[in-house]
Specification:
By secondary structure, the protein is mostly helical. The protein has one domain. The protein is built from four helices and no strands. The protein starts with a helix and ends in a 16-residue tail after the last helix.
């Protein structure tokens, strides 16, 4: 088997591995999006719709070794300087 055929066989066995998730590269204008469940939830709670997909952001936190620690540090530092963050959505409510 020549080198060209071996390279073709190796390329055929090659699998794509996802190493990065791009969030918000092409963020659509909120006015041009379809009204979905998340849009309804945010508007009914009186909150602004986020420019990035919340589910994708949660996945980033779950799959990152360092991001969770950074978010915890932000929460401690923001809370430690007198700011209080209160959620607009009650996840334990019956209609959540």
């Amino acid at each position: 088997m020549n080198e060209g055929a071996a390279a073709d066989q190796a390329h055929a066995r090659l699998q794509a591995i996802l190493k990065a998730v791009v969030v918000g590269r092409d963020v659509a204008d909120a006015a041009s999006r379809e009204a979905g469940e998340s849009t309804t939830l945010f508007s009914s709670a009186g909150a602004l719709e986020p420019p990035y997909d919340p589910e994708a952001l949660c996945l980033l936190v779950e799959h990152s070794n360092a991001l969770r620690q950074n978010l915890d540090a932000y929460a401690v530092n923001i809370d430690g300087f007198g700011h209080r963050l209160e959620p607009a959505i009650d996840f334990e409510a019956e209609d959540a």
